[in-house]
Amino acid sequence: KLSDVKHPGITVEDKESKKKRGISDQKRNIVCAIDEHNNKVIQVSERGRIHTKNLYEIYKDKIPSQCTVVSDSLRSYHGLMKKLGVKWIKIPSGKKEKDGYTLDKVNRLHSSIELFLHGYRGISDKYLKNYIGLYKMKDQNKNYYNKTTFKGIYKKIMNSMCELRYS
Fold it and tell me: Taking the mean position of all CA atoms in its chain, how far away is CA 59?
């Protein structure tokens, strides 16, 4: 019969099996924040859904208490905002803005990181921090492909890694 033939690469979904919702335990979080002056925090975090404790460890020295934080309504942010003591504007899921505040800047940052990482196939979890470091370096130095800029970047990396100073 023709209906008994199965083609490789095509999967048949079983309607009776239940699916897990939310982020997979296998996926690694990249925590991002950006302010109105384009200062950025980009850091690799734990696997699975992120917890308040990990968010606090990342943001405790980077977000002063007099700031206004705009974010989505992820449950982990509730405890974080209490610990940081900041004014929090929570944009509900399904909404694009609240009181004129939007998530456009951080969404563009996410898109930029995804586009950068998409160029590298099969990124290992072990090296994800290195790829994020490379993204930060390219983001800070827009003309990194220029010879003089590249030499400056190379000197900065070598001076930070070695005790012998490259001049």
Answer: 13
Helix spans in 86-146 (H): 104-118, 128-140
Q: How many residues are present in the chain?
A: 167
The two structure tokens encoding residue 156: 């900065």
> For every one of its 167 residues, what pLDDT tens digit does the chain have, with 9 covering 90 and above?
344 443 444 444 444 556 666 666 677 888 888 888 888 888 888 888 888 898 899 888 888 888 888 888 888 888 888 998 888 888 888 888 888 888 888 888 889 989 888 888 888 888 888 888 888 888 887 766 666 777 777 777 767 655 544 44
Q: Side chain identity at 80, as an amino acid letter?
A: L
Give burial (CB, 10 Å; 0-12/13-18/19+) of 71: middle
**Token duo for residue 6:** 């199965």
Please, what is the end-to-end C-alpha distance for the chain in angstroms?
74
Whole-angstrom distance, CA of residue 55 vs CA of residue 71:
13
- Model's pTM, two decimal places? 0.70
Alpha-carbon distance of 91 to 95, in angstroms, equals: 7
